[in-house]
Amino acid sequence: GTPQKYDPTFKGPIYDRGCTDIVCCVLLVVAIVGYVVVGVVAWTHGDPRKVIHPTDSRGQFCGQPGTPNEYSLAPPHGQGTTEGGGLTVSPAAPSCPPHTQICVSKCPDRYLTYLGVSSTTGDLGYYQNFCVPEFNPRKASIEVLKDKECPAMLIPSTPLARRCFPAIQAKKGVIMVGNETTYDDGRGRRRNVTELLEGAKKANVVLETRQLAMKIFEDYTVSWYWIIIGLVIAMVASLIFIVLLRFLAGIMVWVMIIMVILVLGYGIFHCYMEYAKLKGEAGSDVSLVDLGFQTDLRVYLHLRQTWLAFMIILCVVELVIVLLLIFLRKRILIAIALIKEASRAVGHVMSSLLFPLCTFFLLCLCIAYWASTAVFLSTSNEAVYKVFNESACPFSGQTCRPETFNTSNVTKLCPDAQCLFAFYGGETAYHKYLIVLQFFNVFMFFWLANFVIALGQVTLAGAFASYYWAFKKPDDMPAFPLFSAFGRALRYHTGSLAFGSLVLAVVQVIRVTLEYLDHRLKAAENKFAKFLLSCLKCCFWCLEKFIKFLNRNAYIMIAIYGTNFCTSARNAFFLLMRNIIRVAVLDKVTDFLFFLGKLLIVGSVGILAFFFFTQRIKLVQDTAPPLNYYWVPILTVIVGSYLIAHGFFSVYGMCVDTLFLCFLEDLERNDGSAEKPYFMSPNLRKLLKKTNTGQPDA
């Protein structure tokens, strides 16, 4: 069908509408198909084991099912870097081989050196567990160490994340490893164990974090049902607050305004009293200009001129607020009436309060698909082997294959050369364009996430618009307004939602790119480049905020009229600009009420959780579970309460915005005649002194 025209004789919601922005709909379908193809290709080539499991020097994984060797062992010296999930040691030059890394079944538990055990049969048998499979015990000790078939030394180690790290511990303030403060480095020198501390510092942080995580997990296992009860209380409190807004919105707004006036009045009185108290005191009549700038700001509080300036500023602010109240009192009353009407609308469409769960579920799917695809793409590289040697060799640094290396010409020309695992990479076309696929993955994540949010907004807007444009509320409303709006959005306006979310996704990807460039340029000294980058970041941040505002109101117009995205955005923008003062007043009033509601709900539930989990409520003192950290369930309840309150108020905010646009359209399109009656509630008509001639009030 053709897009619906902007009909000046419109009296209610248009249900006979056509498809909009079909090109964008087709583009979205094609992009999703391409995204699925990228995911399938990534899942075919990727291997997440590279992130989880360490590898040996041949690129083989340690700790795989059915293999006896679980842990990765690397020499304790050298600069450790994470490469493909295993701990490797970065070579000093391309021709220098990395330290040999092997998979072992158990980490070493004692101090040993190869030179010290090569003459002892018992210890040599134990030492062989930490040598490469090709180790030949008949080989000369110096040759074994030169060919890196065995480590020069072993130190007591503990397993962590399938890797062996030095077992560092502190006893009475003394750093020790295996109850020793020094160790033999395998070359006849004694070293202090503190030299191992820096290399294992990150491992200790991980170990402490793991212990903390285990304690937090234990707290969740004994308190999860109390946390759920706290979140249910937050949900009930949010629902009650929204219902009470129908009766208390006006009272809360006027109390807030009166409190602001009284606080400013007290501020003026306090400044006058301080000004009068300083009269006649030495040094109090010095002017601010003569005093100049002082680092100790308390000096200014001893000047009469300071308090006089404060008093004048507060008087001006007080006067401005009073004048605004005089001239905007009617608009404030309209905002309060719209908020009350929104509470009634939510009461007639109660299912809308649960709809954010659907949006949240779809967003979780988008995040899961993006994250899994990113992991598989980043692990799609193949094991790359290169030629390493200690003497001059023309093949140094070239790629090689371990299966055919011993029979190649390289070993003939360079007898000491080795074919060792270097890193994960690849030279195929797929590997060359991995960065492009990652960029496409990020872009599609933003596009789909914004599409899901847009779908939720246009669905809620359609449901609440059907309430406003029902002349007899709620009799003229559809039986299932939320499901009807959801069906209309998907059937007719997928293209428009794809268009709006595409524009926003482009801006967000640019912002992510700018943040990446800013991160890379932190060490740069080009001040002009940093300044330019900061300006671009600020501009695109403002642009993103404006597009979100424009998209939100465009989706409301799409839900009402069924017009395409550009027409809806243009009509919504100019409609709001023609009523800019009403927009500002309503926005500030609703912001205050939402802030008050979130503060009240999160604060009350958080305080209740604090007194309960710290066992300060005598009635239920024995019911509270024993905890390692009482702040774990308290913070969980506070964060969860905020998210629940935010979800409820986001629905309520969408309802207010939708009814506001419908109200403005109603004023501009209708005149109260029998042909064009007002659809607003009787309270709004009474407030605006509007009547429907020849029509009974709904």
TrEMBL record:
GO MF entries: antiporter activity
Subcellular locations according to the entry: Cell membrane; Mitochondrion outer membrane
Main location: membrane
Top-rank lineage group of the source organism: Eukaryota
Name of this chain's protein: Choline transporter-like protein
GO cellular component, one term: plasma membrane
Family: Belongs to the CTL (choline transporter-like) family.
InterPro entries linked to this entry: Choline_transptr-like (IPR007603)
Catalyses which reaction(s): choline(out) + n H(+)(in) = choline(in) + n H(+)(out); ethanolamine(out) + n H(+)(in) = ethanolamine(in) + n H(+)(out)
Keywords (A to Z) from UniProt: Antiport, Cell membrane, Glycoprotein, Membrane, Mitochondrion, Mitochondrion outer membrane, Phosphoprotein, Transmembrane, Transmembrane helix, Transport
Membrane topology: Multi-pass membrane protein
PANTHER family: CHOLINE TRANSPORTER-LIKE (SLC FAMILY 44) (PTHR12385), CHOLINE TRANSPORTER-LIKE PROTEIN 2 (PTHR12385:SF34)
Biological source species: Sclerurus mexicanus
Database matches in Pfam families: Choline_transpo
The encoding gene: Slc44a2
Residues annotated as transmembrane: 21-43, 224-244, 251-269, 307-328, 349-371, 444-469, 490-510, 554-577, 589-613, 629-649
Functional summary from the UniProt entry: Choline transporter.
